[in-house]
Amino acid sequence: MHTTREQRLFFADRGYLPFGRIYSESEVEVLRQFVSEVRDIAVDAFALGDRPAASVVIATKPVNEPGKITLSLRNMFRVHEQGHRHAFNPTIAGAAGELLETEQVRLLMDQAIIKEPGISGTIGWHQDFSDWPLERPTQVTCWLALDPATKQSGALQYVPGSHKLGVFARARLGRPVSQRGDADSMIPPDPAAVGHQTVVVELEPGECVFHHSLVWHASGPNTTDRSRRGLITRFMARGPKMRCQRAVAADAACVQPELLLESDDDFPIVWQRS
After folding, report:
1. How far apart are CA 120 and CA 196, in angstroms?
2. Can you give the pTM of this predicted structure?
3. In this structure, what DSSP letter does residue 39 have?
């Protein structure tokens, strides 16, 4: 087992789980170097007006703060050996499978989010599932710190137990913009102001936290003098279907409603129960 009974109960109750250390400092440094290499490839291609190679994309997170940007790199497992090793890490993938209580786990997408000091913005309160064209919320995310993740540097914040409340829309400038939900079911921009408990999960480099695709979470700007880099790996339980007529995050075309996501190229199997 990759998780204890107490950890699984904690996750089921609160929707997130500070899991602990995955990598040593020397291993974290290797991952930092890999992220820098992929970033350079993506930035060079973006500057030339090209689509970055092999499905890696560069983007800014949508925030309501002019001039503030947060860098996102996706699908890195396709272009770098270290990215592939991390996406297929048996401890992380195994823990995801046990938290999802499934027999098989597929990779939905991998990502790096980089918050540079001074220019990074707020990533507002949201739940991952509401932005995904998937049939059921049977997904979990692992967020792994490459730098100290503190409240000051933009560590993840959660509303414990919010994954039990259903599917909500993400609000931007007071309007719902996600695939699901409506104006009556938007996550409040400040959950604490309307009575919800919020917690900050601070992490040392090499440590990670898991969260359910329905749990409300956010992160503030990086107000320190150093980068705050995180590796995000999203997993899905066996048998999910896509309900859309457009591409999903991992760049696999959704060609018909309720397409079963079982492409080993686009959504590879990363763990199976023995």
Report:
1. 26
2. 0.86
3. H
